[in-house]
Amino acid sequence: MRRDSPGFQVIVIGAGHAGCEAALASARMGCQTLLLTMNLDTIGLLPCSASIGGPGRGQLVREIDALGGEMAKAVDDTYIQMREGNLNKGPGVRTLRALVDRRAYGLRMKQRVEGQENLQLRQTMVDEIGVDERGRKHIYTRLQEEFVTENVVVATGTFLEGRNFFGSMSIAAGRHGEISSERLTESLRKLGNSFARAKKATAPKVKAESVDLGVLEIQEPDPTPSLFSHDSVYDGREQLNCFIAHTNENTHRIVLASLAHSPLLATEPLGKSSGHCPTLEEMVVRHGKEWQHRVFLQPEGRAAQEFHLQGVPTALPLPVQEQMVRSMKGLEGCEITTPGYAV
Protein backbone atom coordinates (compact mmCIF):
# COMPACT_ATOMS: atom_id res chain seq x y z
CA MET A 1 0.00 0.00 0.00
CA ARG A 2 1.26 3.48 -0.81
CA ARG A 3 0.30 6.50 1.19
CA ASP A 4 1.69 9.74 -0.22
CA SER A 5 1.84 12.42 2.46
CA PRO A 6 2.69 15.74 0.84
CA GLY A 7 0.80 17.46 3.66
CA PHE A 8 3.28 16.28 6.32
CA GLN A 9 6.18 18.69 6.55
CA VAL A 10 7.77 16.78 9.43
CA ILE A 11 7.63 13.10 10.44
CA VAL A 12 8.91 12.03 13.86
CA ILE A 13 9.84 8.40 14.52
CA GLY A 14 9.54 7.42 18.18
CA ALA A 15 7.28 8.74 20.95
CA GLY A 16 9.44 8.81 24.07
CA HIS A 17 10.53 12.03 25.75
CA ALA A 18 12.47 13.34 22.76
CA GLY A 19 9.96 12.24 20.12
CA CYS A 20 7.00 13.81 21.91
CA GLU A 21 8.81 17.10 22.40
CA ALA A 22 9.98 17.17 18.77
CA ALA A 23 6.50 16.42 17.44
CA LEU A 24 4.83 18.98 19.69
CA ALA A 25 7.41 21.67 18.85
CA SER A 26 6.96 21.07 15.13
CA ALA A 27 3.16 21.13 15.32
CA ARG A 28 3.13 24.23 17.52
CA MET A 29 5.25 26.03 14.92
CA GLY A 30 2.49 25.38 12.41
CA CYS A 31 4.06 22.42 10.59
CA GLN A 32 1.83 19.51 9.60
CA THR A 33 3.43 16.73 11.63
CA LEU A 34 3.12 12.95 11.82
CA LEU A 35 4.31 10.99 14.87
CA LEU A 36 5.04 7.30 14.24
CA THR A 37 5.46 4.84 17.11
CA MET A 38 5.36 1.07 17.52
CA ASN A 39 2.76 1.27 20.28
CA LEU A 40 0.43 4.17 20.98
CA ASP A 41 -0.10 2.87 24.52
CA THR A 42 3.57 3.41 25.44
CA ILE A 43 3.79 7.09 24.47
CA GLY A 44 5.83 8.92 27.10
CA LEU A 45 6.67 5.66 28.87
CA LEU A 46 9.18 5.81 31.73
CA PRO A 47 10.91 2.43 31.38
CA CYS A 48 13.40 2.82 34.21
CA SER A 49 12.83 5.04 37.24
CA ALA A 50 9.81 7.34 37.46
CA SER A 51 12.11 9.99 38.95
CA ILE A 52 12.60 13.10 36.81
CA GLY A 53 15.09 15.86 37.51
CA GLY A 54 18.02 15.91 39.89
CA PRO A 55 21.51 17.33 39.27
CA GLY A 56 21.86 18.60 35.71
CA ARG A 57 18.69 16.92 34.51
CA GLY A 58 16.43 19.14 36.60
CA GLN A 59 17.90 22.17 34.87
CA LEU A 60 17.33 20.51 31.51
CA VAL A 61 13.63 19.97 32.29
CA ARG A 62 13.27 23.67 33.10
CA GLU A 63 15.11 24.66 29.93
CA ILE A 64 12.68 22.53 27.91
CA ASP A 65 9.87 24.39 29.65
CA ALA A 66 11.43 27.77 28.81
CA LEU A 67 11.49 26.72 25.15
CA GLY A 68 7.78 25.87 25.21
CA GLY A 69 8.11 22.15 25.83
CA GLU A 70 5.69 19.83 27.61
CA MET A 71 7.79 17.73 29.98
CA ALA A 72 7.81 20.11 32.97
CA LYS A 73 4.04 20.59 32.78
CA ALA A 74 3.48 16.83 32.59
CA VAL A 75 5.70 16.33 35.64
CA ASP A 76 3.86 19.00 37.62
CA ASP A 77 0.51 17.43 36.72
CA THR A 78 1.47 13.89 37.75
CA TYR A 79 4.08 14.04 40.52
CA ILE A 80 3.55 12.05 43.71
CA GLN A 81 6.61 13.40 45.48
CA MET A 82 8.66 16.58 44.96
CA ARG A 83 11.93 17.39 46.72
CA GLU A 84 14.62 20.00 46.30
CA GLY A 85 18.12 18.69 46.93
CA ASN A 86 21.44 20.21 48.00
CA LEU A 87 19.69 22.77 50.21
CA ASN A 88 22.80 22.92 52.40
CA LYS A 89 24.74 24.25 49.42
CA GLY A 90 24.61 27.37 47.29
CA PRO A 91 21.70 28.19 44.95
CA GLY A 92 23.75 27.28 41.89
CA VAL A 93 23.82 23.57 42.76
CA ARG A 94 20.36 23.16 44.29
CA THR A 95 18.24 20.85 42.21
CA LEU A 96 14.60 19.83 41.99
CA ARG A 97 13.63 16.18 41.62
CA ALA A 98 10.15 14.76 41.12
CA LEU A 99 8.78 11.26 41.42
CA VAL A 100 5.81 10.92 39.09
CA ASP A 101 3.02 8.38 38.81
CA ARG A 102 4.38 6.28 35.96
CA ARG A 103 1.05 5.42 34.32
CA ALA A 104 -0.43 8.89 34.85
CA TYR A 105 2.61 10.56 33.28
CA GLY A 106 2.41 8.45 30.10
CA LEU A 107 -1.33 8.97 29.81
CA ARG A 108 -0.92 12.72 30.35
CA MET A 109 1.69 12.95 27.57
CA LYS A 110 -0.42 10.81 25.24
CA GLN A 111 -3.46 13.02 25.77
CA ARG A 112 -1.42 16.11 24.97
CA VAL A 113 0.02 14.82 21.68
CA GLU A 114 -3.36 13.39 20.66
CA GLY A 115 -5.03 16.74 21.21
CA GLN A 116 -2.35 18.87 19.56
CA GLU A 117 -3.39 20.80 16.45
CA ASN A 118 -1.36 19.99 13.30
CA LEU A 119 -0.22 16.65 14.79
CA GLN A 120 -1.34 13.18 13.76
CA LEU A 121 -0.34 9.85 15.32
CA ARG A 122 0.08 6.44 13.76
CA GLN A 123 0.96 3.07 15.30
CA THR A 124 3.38 1.33 12.98
CA MET A 125 6.99 0.11 12.78
CA VAL A 126 9.40 1.93 10.48
CA ASP A 127 11.75 -0.37 8.57
CA GLU A 128 13.46 1.91 6.09
CA ILE A 129 14.15 5.53 5.19
CA GLY A 130 15.07 6.37 1.62
CA VAL A 131 16.01 9.63 -0.07
CA ASP A 132 15.05 10.42 -3.68
CA GLU A 133 16.80 12.68 -6.17
CA ARG A 134 14.79 15.67 -4.96
CA GLY A 135 15.93 15.15 -1.39
CA ARG A 136 12.54 13.97 -0.16
CA LYS A 137 12.51 11.29 2.50
CA HIS A 138 10.51 8.12 1.90
CA ILE A 139 9.54 6.21 5.03
CA TYR A 140 8.58 2.54 4.60
CA THR A 141 6.85 0.62 7.38
CA ARG A 142 6.49 -3.06 8.30
CA LEU A 143 2.84 -2.79 7.20
CA GLN A 144 3.95 -1.83 3.65
CA GLU A 145 2.99 1.81 4.06
CA GLU A 146 4.97 4.63 2.50
CA PHE A 147 5.12 8.21 3.78
CA VAL A 148 6.88 11.03 1.93
CA THR A 149 8.14 14.18 3.65
CA GLU A 150 10.87 16.79 3.56
CA ASN A 151 12.01 16.40 7.18
CA VAL A 152 12.45 13.38 9.46
CA VAL A 153 13.32 13.29 13.16
CA VAL A 154 14.58 9.92 14.41
CA ALA A 155 14.02 9.59 18.18
CA THR A 156 14.12 5.83 18.65
CA GLY A 157 15.92 5.65 22.00
CA THR A 158 17.29 2.19 22.76
CA PHE A 159 15.35 0.42 19.99
CA LEU A 160 17.89 0.49 17.14
CA GLU A 161 19.32 -3.07 17.25
CA GLY A 162 18.57 -3.00 20.97
CA ARG A 163 19.35 -6.02 23.14
CA ASN A 164 18.36 -6.72 26.73
CA PHE A 165 20.74 -8.66 28.97
CA PHE A 166 19.81 -10.73 32.02
CA GLY A 167 23.12 -12.18 33.16
CA SER A 168 24.46 -14.35 30.33
CA MET A 169 21.07 -14.46 28.60
CA SER A 170 20.17 -11.82 26.01
CA ILE A 171 17.18 -11.11 23.80
CA ALA A 172 16.57 -8.68 20.95
CA ALA A 173 14.48 -5.94 22.57
CA GLY A 174 14.37 -2.18 22.83
CA ARG A 175 12.96 -2.39 26.35
CA HIS A 176 11.93 -5.37 28.46
CA GLY A 177 9.07 -7.04 26.58
CA GLU A 178 9.22 -4.80 23.48
CA ILE A 179 10.75 -5.73 20.14
CA SER A 180 13.78 -3.91 18.78
CA SER A 181 14.16 -2.27 15.37
CA GLU A 182 16.70 -4.11 13.23
CA ARG A 183 15.90 -3.05 9.66
CA LEU A 184 15.80 0.67 10.34
CA THR A 185 19.33 0.58 11.74
CA GLU A 186 20.68 -0.96 8.55
CA SER A 187 18.74 1.55 6.47
CA LEU A 188 20.30 4.46 8.36
CA ARG A 189 23.77 2.95 7.86
CA LYS A 190 23.18 2.89 4.11
CA LEU A 191 22.43 6.61 4.30
CA GLY A 192 25.90 7.20 5.73
CA ASN A 193 25.14 7.26 9.44
CA SER A 194 27.51 5.59 11.89
CA PHE A 195 26.59 4.15 15.28
CA ALA A 196 28.29 3.61 18.62
CA ARG A 197 26.83 1.31 21.23
CA ALA A 198 26.07 2.59 24.72
CA LYS A 199 25.10 0.51 27.74
CA LYS A 200 22.80 1.14 30.64
CA ALA A 201 21.07 -0.94 33.28
CA THR A 202 17.85 -0.56 35.20
CA ALA A 203 17.06 -1.58 38.76
CA PRO A 204 14.65 -4.33 39.84
CA LYS A 205 11.14 -3.65 41.12
CA VAL A 206 9.72 -5.44 44.15
CA LYS A 207 6.26 -6.22 45.50
CA ALA A 208 5.37 -3.47 47.97
CA GLU A 209 3.71 -5.69 50.57
CA SER A 210 6.80 -7.91 50.74
CA VAL A 211 8.92 -5.06 52.17
CA ASP A 212 9.21 -4.37 55.92
CA LEU A 213 8.74 -0.60 55.77
CA GLY A 214 8.79 -0.27 59.56
CA VAL A 215 12.59 -0.69 59.73
CA LEU A 216 13.41 1.63 56.82
CA GLU A 217 14.23 5.32 56.86
CA ILE A 218 11.41 7.52 55.54
CA GLN A 219 12.10 10.13 52.87
CA GLU A 220 9.35 12.71 53.06
CA PRO A 221 8.40 15.17 50.30
CA ASP A 222 8.79 18.93 50.58
CA PRO A 223 5.61 20.19 52.30
CA THR A 224 5.21 23.14 49.92
CA PRO A 225 7.20 22.10 46.87
CA SER A 226 8.68 24.11 44.07
CA LEU A 227 7.48 23.07 40.60
CA PHE A 228 9.25 22.63 37.28
CA SER A 229 7.13 24.77 34.95
CA HIS A 230 6.82 28.53 35.34
CA ASP A 231 3.15 28.08 34.32
CA SER A 232 2.31 25.63 37.13
CA VAL A 233 0.65 26.50 40.43
CA TYR A 234 0.91 24.32 43.54
CA ASP A 235 -2.45 22.62 44.15
CA GLY A 236 -1.91 21.29 47.67
CA ARG A 237 -2.12 17.64 46.63
CA GLU A 238 -1.22 14.81 48.97
CA GLN A 239 2.25 13.45 48.32
CA LEU A 240 3.72 10.03 49.03
CA ASN A 241 6.75 9.02 51.05
CA CYS A 242 9.72 7.14 49.67
CA PHE A 243 11.84 4.84 51.83
CA ILE A 244 15.58 4.30 52.14
CA ALA A 245 17.41 0.99 52.57
CA HIS A 246 21.15 0.37 52.49
CA THR A 247 23.45 -2.15 50.92
CA ASN A 248 25.97 -3.79 53.22
CA GLU A 249 29.10 -5.89 53.17
CA ASN A 250 27.11 -9.06 52.52
CA THR A 251 25.33 -7.40 49.55
CA HIS A 252 28.69 -6.47 48.05
CA ARG A 253 30.14 -9.91 48.71
CA ILE A 254 27.28 -11.45 46.71
CA VAL A 255 27.90 -9.04 43.86
CA LEU A 256 31.68 -9.61 43.82
CA ALA A 257 31.18 -13.38 43.72
CA SER A 258 28.94 -13.02 40.66
CA LEU A 259 30.87 -10.55 38.49
CA ALA A 260 31.64 -13.23 35.92
CA HIS A 261 27.91 -13.32 35.13
CA SER A 262 27.58 -9.56 34.54
CA PRO A 263 27.41 -8.63 30.84
CA LEU A 264 28.37 -5.06 31.75
CA LEU A 265 31.77 -6.20 33.02
CA ALA A 266 32.41 -8.88 30.40
CA THR A 267 35.71 -9.23 28.55
CA GLU A 268 33.99 -7.77 25.50
CA PRO A 269 31.75 -5.08 27.02
CA LEU A 270 28.40 -4.17 25.49
CA GLY A 271 29.44 -0.59 24.85
CA LYS A 272 30.41 2.65 26.51
CA SER A 273 28.73 3.33 29.84
CA SER A 274 26.23 6.17 30.00
CA GLY A 275 28.25 7.35 33.02
CA HIS A 276 25.63 9.14 35.11
CA CYS A 277 24.00 5.97 36.44
CA PRO A 278 26.62 3.26 37.20
CA THR A 279 25.45 -0.24 38.03
CA LEU A 280 25.85 -1.78 41.46
CA GLU A 281 28.45 -4.11 39.94
CA GLU A 282 30.53 -1.15 38.76
CA MET A 283 30.21 0.63 42.11
CA VAL A 284 31.28 -2.44 44.09
CA VAL A 285 34.31 -2.97 41.84
CA ARG A 286 35.24 0.69 42.29
CA HIS A 287 34.71 0.96 46.07
CA GLY A 288 35.11 -2.58 47.38
CA LYS A 289 32.82 -4.36 49.82
CA GLU A 290 33.36 -2.28 52.97
CA TRP A 291 31.07 0.65 52.28
CA GLN A 292 27.36 1.41 52.31
CA HIS A 293 25.12 2.58 49.48
CA ARG A 294 21.65 4.09 49.82
CA VAL A 295 18.76 2.44 47.98
CA PHE A 296 15.60 4.49 47.45
CA LEU A 297 12.32 2.58 47.39
CA GLN A 298 10.12 4.63 45.08
CA PRO A 299 6.40 3.86 44.66
CA GLU A 300 5.48 3.35 41.02
CA GLY A 301 2.26 5.35 41.41
CA ARG A 302 -0.61 6.18 43.74
CA ALA A 303 -2.38 2.88 43.12
CA ALA A 304 0.69 0.79 42.26
CA GLN A 305 1.80 -2.14 44.41
CA GLU A 306 5.47 -2.02 43.44
CA PHE A 307 8.61 -0.22 44.57
CA HIS A 308 11.39 0.66 42.16
CA LEU A 309 14.78 0.14 43.86
CA GLN A 310 16.47 3.31 42.71
CA GLY A 311 20.22 3.13 43.21
CA VAL A 312 20.93 -0.52 42.39
CA PRO A 313 20.73 -0.86 38.59
CA THR A 314 22.06 -4.29 37.68
CA ALA A 315 22.27 -6.87 34.91
CA LEU A 316 23.14 -9.84 37.10
CA PRO A 317 21.09 -13.06 36.75
CA LEU A 318 17.75 -13.10 38.55
CA PRO A 319 18.81 -15.58 41.30
CA VAL A 320 21.74 -13.29 42.15
CA GLN A 321 19.47 -10.25 42.17
CA GLU A 322 17.19 -12.02 44.65
CA GLN A 323 20.11 -12.81 46.97
CA MET A 324 21.46 -9.28 46.62
CA VAL A 325 18.16 -7.56 47.39
CA ARG A 326 17.24 -9.87 50.27
CA SER A 327 20.59 -9.17 51.95
CA MET A 328 19.41 -5.64 52.83
CA LYS A 329 17.62 -4.78 56.05
CA GLY A 330 13.88 -4.52 55.49
CA LEU A 331 14.03 -6.44 52.21
CA GLU A 332 14.79 -9.90 53.61
CA GLY A 333 11.46 -11.32 52.41
CA CYS A 334 10.90 -9.20 49.32
CA GLU A 335 9.67 -10.56 46.00
CA ILE A 336 11.12 -9.21 42.75
CA THR A 337 8.31 -8.51 40.31
CA THR A 338 10.47 -7.12 37.49
CA PRO A 339 14.19 -7.97 37.35
CA GLY A 340 16.86 -5.45 36.54
CA TYR A 341 18.49 -5.76 33.13
CA ALA A 342 20.98 -4.08 30.83
CA VAL A 343 20.23 -2.59 27.45
Short description:
The protein is an alpha+beta fold and 343 residues long. It is 22% helix and 26% strand. It has a six-stranded antiparallel beta sheet with strand order 16-17-19-20-15-21, with no helix packed on it.
Defining traits:
343 residues; alpha+beta; FAD/NAD(P)-binding domain; Elongation Factor Tu (Ef-tu), domain 3; 2 domains; 4-stranded parallel beta sheet; 8 helices; 22 strands; 26% strand; globular
What count of structural domains?
2
Shape estimate: globular
The number of helical segments is 8
Largest sheet: 6 strands, antiparallel
The residue-averaged pLDDT reads 91
Radius of gyration: 21 Å
Give the strand order, joined by hyphens, for the main sheet: 16-17-19-20-15-21
Structural class: alpha+beta
What CATH calls the topology of the largest domain is FAD/NAD(P)-binding domain
CATH class of the largest domain: Alpha Beta
Report on the architecture of this protein:
Pfam families: GIDA (PF01134). This is tRNA uridine 5-carboxymethylaminomethyl modification enzyme. It comes from Candidatus Hakubella thermalkaliphila. One of its GO terms (molecular function) is flavin adenine dinucleotide binding. It is built from 8 helices and 22 strands. By secondary structure, the protein is α+β, with helices and mostly antiparallel strands. The chain folds into 2 domains: 156 residues, FAD/NAD(P)-binding domain; 142 residues, Beta Barrel (Elongation Factor Tu (Ef-tu), domain 3), CATH 2.40.30. The strands form 7 sheets. The chain has a 6-stranded antiparallel sheet, with no helix packed on it. The protein has a 4-stranded parallel sheet with strand order 6-2-1-10, with helices on one face. Helix 3 packs across helix 4. The radius of gyration is 21 Å and the shape is globular. The two termini are 34 Å apart.
